[in-house]
Amino acid sequence: MTEPAAALLLATLGAALVGGGAAIAAALWLSEFAPRPAVAPLRRVCEIAAAVPSIVWGQLALSAAAPRMAREGIAPLPLVAVLSVMVAPALTLLALDALRRTPDDVREASLALGASRWQTAWRAVLPAARDALLASLVRTVGRACAEAAVLLWLTTGLAPHGAVPVAIATALVAGRIERGRGARA
User: Fold this and answer.
1) Which CATH number do you get for residue 95?
2) Which end of the chain is more exposed for a tag (fewer CB within 10 A), N or C?
3) pLDDT digits (tens, 9 = 90+) for 149-173
4) What range defines the domain where residue 16 resides?
5) pTM of the entire structure?
6) Cβ neighbours of residue 108 closer than 8 Å, sequence gap 6 or more
């Protein structure tokens, strides 16, 4: 594995662990423990943070990571930090929706059996929402991985060659254009 590919893999895994763990914990707190009046404003903050364009995160990562990469070679730690911040708001919103879709019967049954609110959240709600949480994590980390790949190609000068990356990029751009047209129609 080449050095940029290894850095990309480490940055993606780090973002999944750091940003993903924090986002799912935040969503669990918002869903199960937060005071009801606080949920709407905190959700709005997450929505605003998730709406920050990728180019802003990329510029932040480039300004933070490029000088260090020029001095020390490819270092995944700045990428992990930026990707974690980038992943957390979107993943928090998706995880919050997944946890809220868990039927109230699951919570009521757990509480009726004598479990505390924490035990209910940990042993009943999280397992019930596991598939949706995993899908949310894969979606947001995949997006972050694509951003990190572009950042690494720009900072290292090791842009991929050949038809496959060009075809993938073309398909992604075409997909975004088609989705944009479908949303306006």
Assistant:
1) 1.10.3720.10
2) C
3) 766 665 555 555 544 455 555 555 5
4) 3-159
5) 0.75
6) none
